Automatic annotation (TrEMBL):
GO CC annotations, alphabetized: cytosol
Keyword Lyase: no
A GO MF label: metal ion binding
Keywords from the named record: Hydrolase, Metal-binding
Organism listed in the record: Mobiluncus mulieris ATCC 35239
Binding site for a divalent metal cation 2: H131, H155
One of the Pfam families matching this protein, by short name: TatD_DNase
Protein name: Hydrolase, TatD family
Binding positions (a divalent metal cation 1): E94, D205
KW Hydrolase (keyword) present: yes
SUPFAM superfamilies reported for this sequence: Metallo-dependent hydrolases
Region forming the signal peptide: none
InterPro entries: Metal_Hydrolase, TatD-like
Length: 263
């Protein structure tokens, strides 16, 4: 945890949302005062709540867990109740669209869930964290049609220059994970050059997407500095300046005061 001032932990299944009070008690010690939560029904969970188990393009068999027997509408109600009741909930997410793990028949459930989360984020004036996997055009279309929240974040940004230009034009944030440091991800790196610094965030997506030079090991929050430094090098800006800018951005998005943004 060295150098980590705060973290936002995503609770994006019904069982995680339902046990959020237990999670909050577990993090009740003063040392965990800076642990916050985001709540949602993940897009890959949404079709299961509607009984849709067809295999997606990833060819991984779908299994319906016990908590997914609850209808999607009721699961979304549970998310809203948690977001309204628990003061350490600072965001709605991960929500969005995932066309890699979901079959065509499950897309409507994902879109229904995504739209509901958008409206919830707006009603509570909370930031929206978007999971967008191989669904860029539909994510953007739905955000524009329903109306994006004031603070909209594309978590683990996976787009290219074109998507980055759309985010920039709409004032949406791109949160970059460690995979931006991988040499083969040229499209992702070109997107960095398009994004205004005041709309950039970094994240882990732990335990995956560990940045270079630690790729292959479990990811963790203390490694986000490597990702931030890579962005700075790529953009040709001072590393400390960009780190402070990212801290300021995170504070503005999540309403969390970060000391590094004041340097």
């Amino acid at each position: 945890m060295a150098g980590v001032e705060a973290m936002v932990v995503s609770q994006c299944s019904l069982v995680e949302v339902q046990t959020l009070d237990e999670q909050r008690e577990r993090f009740a010690l003063p040392i965990f005062d800076s642990v916050f939560f985001a709540v949602a029904i993940h897009p890959n969970e949404a079709p299961h709540h509607e009984g849709i188990l067809e295999t997606g393009p990833d060819n991984v068999a779908q299994i319906r867990e016990a908590w997914q027997e609850v209808p999607l509408a009721d699961a979304l109600t549970a998310v809203e109740q948690a977001a309204r009741r628990i003061d350490k909930v600072v965001a709605i997410g991960e929500t969005g669209l995932d066309y890699f793990r979901t079959a065509e028949v499950g897309k409507d459930a994902q879109k229904q869930s995504f739209a509901a989360h958008i409206e919830l984020a707006k009603s509570l004036d909370l930031p929206l964290q978007i999971h967008d996997r191989e669904a860029h055009a539909d994510c953007v279309e739905l955000l524009l049609r329903v109306g994006a929240p004031r603070r909209t974040v594309f978590h683990c940004f996976s787009g290219d220059r074109e998507l980055a230009e759309i985010l920039s034009a709409n004032g949406w944030y791109a949160s970059f994970a460690g995979n931006v440091t991988y040499p083969a991800n040229r499209d992702l790196q070109e997107a960095v050059l398009v994004m205004p610094r005041e709309l950039c965030l970094v994240e882990t997506d732990a335990p995956y997407l560990t940045p270079q030079p630690y790729r292959g090991r479990p990811n963790a929050s203390y490694l986000v500095g490597h990702t931030a430094d890579f962005l700075a090098q790529l953009a040709g800006v001072d590393s400390d300046t960009l780190r402070c800018q990212i801290c300021e951005n995170a504070g503005e998005v999540y309403g969390i005061g970060l000391k590094n943004s004041e340097k």
